[in-house]
TrEMBL record:
Record's protein name: Multicopper oxidase family protein
Organism: Rhodocytophaga aerolata
Occurrences of domain Plastocyanin-like (ranges): 18-127, 168-244, 336-424
InterPro entries: Cu-oxidase-like_N, Cu-oxidase_2nd, Cu-oxidase_C, Cu-oxidase_fam, Cu_oxidase_CS, Cu_oxidase_Cu_BS, Cupredoxin
Keyword tags: Metal-binding, Oxidoreductase
Pfam families: Cu-oxidase, Cu-oxidase_2, Cu-oxidase_3
Amino acid sequence: MKKQSNIVEYQFEASQFEWEIAEGKTIQAWGFNKQVPGPIIKARKGDTLVVRLKNSLSESTMIHWHGIRVPASMDGTGEVQKPVAPGEEFEYRFQVEDAGSFWYHSHHNETVQMERGMYGAIVVEDELDPVVDEEKIFMIDDMKLTANFEFTKPSWALPRLIEKHDGRQGDTLLINGKVDSLLHMHARQMERWRFINASSARYFKLYLGGREFKIIGSDGGLIEQPVVVREALITPGERLDIMVGPFKEGEIIPIDSLSYSRSTFLRPKKETFASVKVLEAKPSVANIPPFLRVIEPLAPQEAAINRKVKFSVGPSLKNGMNFLINNGLHVLDEPVKVGELQVWEIDNVSLMDHPFHLHGFFFQVLEINGKAPAYKAWKDTINLTPRTKVKIAWMPDNRPGKWMYHCHILEHHAAGMMASFEVI
Ligand code: C2O
Ligand code: CU
């Protein structure tokens, strides 16, 4: 049988517009096609995606396809592309080779552009996907707004330093661009919920009011077997696919984030981002097999490390605080060769959490502080708790060019916690 490649096309316009986050509460958002999040991109594994971006903002922008194995030239970073200037256009074109929950976001002046809403979800389906009754996407974000729903930057030195240190954590909690959403599902049915954390710095610890749910997917698509839990951490940049239900008619399922201390000045309490009301029963066709797919290990847990990456935070006379990789700011790391297995140790010597994100390639976590992770998954973002070493393995397939890795807390990335390197 010949594999058919379908072309899926989208026209994107980046602009400023009024966006209603709740009834009567409007912000001056920046986004794609006048909505926050931008349009949901839907494709099937193997499709060619074409997104024509027109920039109608008053500043340059670029789109990064977080988690998609694009060619280097399509990665949407300053390493590989000239930012799209106001009034200009750019065409992104690439094949989507993996099924799963991905996302796109601005990769230019991120602490402003992403904060204002320049992101959206990408769902890539394939025939391995379990049959479910319904699917929902939950894009998590928080915004820091004044009483008049205006974006603010702290003007005083201390709050500015705190925002730099902790990342901007907002007070307006959003799911799919809305505050306090009430969604619906039906009793007796089972749904797949795809969570994408698009916030600058919020650690989202998913909790459904104590109900069990099944993790079925991670950054790079399905995991091997469903894992039953009652809570799960989703850091900025990460995705998590879960199966929920069946629930009883009349139940209200809260989409909560439990308190999580990332060892910063902030210690958010438990908060509710949205709720799902269970309506009358409908028949179910859902079928979640006990085994979802095979994830072949790239390397054994004891594989020899061939690169060390150190994350640290240090005082600085010039910047107040430096967010460093291998003791440098925005550094250039050594090249890697196509086809040569990479086993990296990411060592967080700082006293706070950082979500490490690798562009363009999925990795497997071999160990966290010497222990194998709870389940096998393809990842592109992994949290580093304070004083933690994470060992990852990844394979540079034949996509030479310039790539990067960085902390996905946007303020940390901007403050220097990023490195670029070449695949040759
Ligand atoms: Cu979503 Cu450079 O990252
Ligand atoms: Cu960080």
